[in-house]
Amino acid sequence: MLDAAFWGLIQGLTEFLPISSSGHLVLVPALLGRDGPNLATSAVLHIGTLAAVLAYFRADLFEVVRFTPEGKRLLRFMLIGTIPAAVAGLALRDPLDRLNEQPRWVAVAMICAGLVFISTRFLDKGRRRAQEVQGRDGIIMGLGQAVALIPGVSRSGTTIASGMLEGFEHREGASLAFLLGIPAIAGAGLLNFVDLLAEDASGLGPELLLGMVVAAVVGYAAIAGLLGLIRVTGLAPFGWYCVAFGALSLILL
Q: What is the pTM of this model?
């Protein structure tokens, strides 16, 4: 029971803060000398974080469902932006899965991503609003999301950084990054469930409900907190964290 809650806390925080959920779910178990979350736990935790982002951006998603002009623009952005990661994920799934078994390489990837996030402080502060999003933005931010398939590289971080390159104001770019992540989070959860069913569904139990709830509540708070902070701080502080945690992991592993 406590295990599921612990992994829910890690997933909820790191899925949306630009510090890499995949990296933490590899490095934290390695540093603690224990196994990471199993397939059942991973699948349920993704449901929790998916619920968090759907709840937070319910107004935007309602526009998509109503198919308003704003909703159609956002839907086009999300569809275009999902393609690069979907193609890369299907083509490179086995090599990427093997990287998850190499914590030191994950730590190196986290350090490299952190350096990129730190470098965004030299970008001009953008002024574009989310309502101005175009198909080209979907391509650029989608490519950033595809890079984040590498374990240790934060999806929210790379998509926010890509949004900064496109001239979006920090908070606006972060909102778009979270919306773009919805299909990816849903897809990851679905793939985990498919793998689980193919392997053994007996791992599903009521105790995982706690992990899902923790992931959802903490994830919602992480979204709200980041959107409040990033306008002031940008990505650099999170980049320094990635460098420090990745370097510490390299030393200790």
A: 0.91
